[in-house]
Hints:
Blueprint: H1 2-14, H2 16-36, H3 51-62, E1 72-78, H4 88-101, E2 107-110, E3 125-132, H5 141-156, E4 160-165, H6 177-193, H7 196-224, H8 228-258, H9 263-290, H10 298-329, H11 359-369, H12 371-386, E5 394-395, H13 407-419, E6 427-432, H14 439-451, E7 456-459, E8 463-464, E9 470-477, H15 484-504, E10 507-511, H16 513-547, H17 551-576, H18 581-584, E11 592-593, H19 596-624, H20 629-656, H21 664-696, H22 705-710, H23 721-737
Parallel strand pairs: 5-11
Antiparallel strand pairs: 1-3, 1-4, 2-3, 6-9, 6-10, 7-9, 8-9
Helix pairs in contact: 1-2, 1-9, 1-10, 2-7, 2-10, 4-5, 6-7, 6-20, 7-8, 7-10, 8-9, 8-10, 8-20, 9-10, 9-16, 9-19, 11-20, 12-17, 12-21, 14-15, 16-17, 16-19, 17-19, 17-21, 19-20, 19-21, 20-21
Amino acid sequence: MATFLYRLGRFAFRRRHFVALIWVALLTLAGVGAASAPAAGSGSFSIPGTEAQKAFDLLDERFPGMSADGATARVVFQAPDGQKLSAADHKSAVEEAVKDLGTGPEVVSVTDPFATKSVSKDGSVGYAQVRYEVSGMELEESTKEALEHAAEDARDSGLTVEIGGDALQATPETGSTEIIGIAVAAVVLVITLGSLVAAGLPLLTALIGVGIGVSTITALASALELGSTTSTLAMMIGLAVGIDYALFIVSRYRAELAEGRDREEAVGRAVGTAGSAVVFAGLTVVIALVGLAVVNIPMLTKMGVAAAGTVVIAVLIALTMIPALLGYAGRKVQPAGARSKRFGRRKAAAEDRPATPNMGTRWASFVVRRPVAVLLFGIIGLGAAAVPVGSLELGLPDDGSQPTSTTQRRAYDLLSEGFGPGFNGPLMVVGDAKGSDDPKAAAAEVADEIKGLDGVVTVAPATFNKAGDTFTITVVPDSKPSSTQTEDLVHAIRDTGAGVQADTGTEVLVSGTTAMNIDFSQKMNDALVPYLALVVGLAFLLLIAVFRSILVPLKAALGFLLSVLAALGAVVAVFQWGWLSGLMGVEETGPIMSMMPIFMVGVVFGLAMDYEVFLVTRMREAYVHGESPSQAVVTGFKHGARVVTAAAVIMMAVFAGFIGSSESMVKMIGFGLAIAVFFDAFVVRMAIVPAVLALLGKRAWWLPKWLDRALPNVDVEGEGLKAAAEAHAGKDKELVRA
Length: 738
């Protein structure tokens, strides 16, 4: 591996024009594809194998014109204080609005609140429901404008009018904090690498990689039904790993220059050593992201594969374009220790100043002297941060979690005020009566059974399809959609349906957005353990080959579990308990997004292994070259701590930049990943890892002989580079003689 990458780095350095041209051509091609591609929709959301999805599929089959997965809008009308909607002028304004709402070409149906008795008991609040043929992200702008104009006309008559539902769904905005995150990354790079040119290389290559990845996703979004969140995730992860991977290679290049090697040889050695770590670190991230397919939710699988593709691009750019750009930069990228005049005086001669150990060396020496104290402090600290996980509640965001400034949230609050909190999350009970002798009697029995359950406010009469073999019943709970009471009611209706099926032959299914969210959360919980076993197991085998050790990969996996639990605890504290919620821009606390635990497990594991590979391979390299286990730990920190610290700060800054997003899911992911990187890099990798290695000593690098013979020699330490360097030196001598 190291020898191949060494040759690749030298090739890219010599053929820099060719390499740069290829990447510019790929960026141009992806950009043209994105610009000419049709607009993407919201992405298909299905949960195979769940009862709610089975009910949706049944509705599509038996109610072909219903558009079960189409967008909906609830236009909520409220009369002025002390007045009723039934007043002549108010009723006329509502009826005119309903007429306007039904004129669009994408509208399937519109309900009149007076005809459907969708008016609150006190007569002050009512709503009209609009159903569309396509999803919210696929609606034409003219349709959305017509919806807003109808509401505005009703407001002009003196009514309060708000619009709920997903018809006004918009692409999330990340806000200015994303740019701030990149700016922080730039400052850290300048401080770490000592010059604007050296700092600009990782930023430039990361932006090119993200540009290619996101443009490709945009170009394929319509064909593959990729949602807007897919490109946001790819951008988030692609920026973070792209900057980090390039940083590690540039830093190693400067270290090789400091040892007196010429620039081409330094590039080759940097790509051969640091590049090997980049490859295996990237592989762990790809395994974690692609492994999301285990959950068997198409949307999540597509997100993982798309983000993994962006990571692959980041690895390839770091291995090829960075060497090419280093060739262009020439002497503008200086050896480690030498700083440009702009950022400080040049390195003094060795005889003019005493050699002082850097911060990484001093910290590692302290940890090696006090391993037990550091280990206990780290474990207890992470354990305390993980305490909130005990009260973790999972769910999916709805209009109730939107900022109070949005019309969706105001519509949600008006409906809760007028009809009760459960009205925002009605349940749709679907009956397949094809096997029943009397479908209408079966529907009546289902309705009667549901009315007798606790937590039910209203049960609407059954609505049959044209064939008369399928019916739907709308059930309104007395609790809000995301509550445990509503979840209990869904399970109770399903239990009742089993008895009805035995009596009448009618299969009863519970669906609707609320039931779909409940099934989604359950599926995520069920998939967590298999996913964790698959991802950690594959990465464990990979790390055994990299480190030639059993205990080092085991320690890496256990450390990851500590950091991910602590990060989840922080997410619960902020987004569920409300700690520092104002600082994070969280206007409404509530359950944690259902996919958050499994998503964090996947992404954080991949990123955690980055730091493990980069830091511990330096220790392994020192140990293989004859240093004692304790001294190898110090040497690893001497060469790697500064760069790993910079990489972690950069990754935290990039992730934290997405906290300013207008979409709660992106905001939560950004915060969760940023705090997870902090815990993993600074507590686990910088404290717990060296403490454990110091306690284990030589046992840390133990590997059974039979396994050592069976494993492939990936040569991350670069032992094979000695032969390549000697051969290169021999050729140079022959050229000189000639």
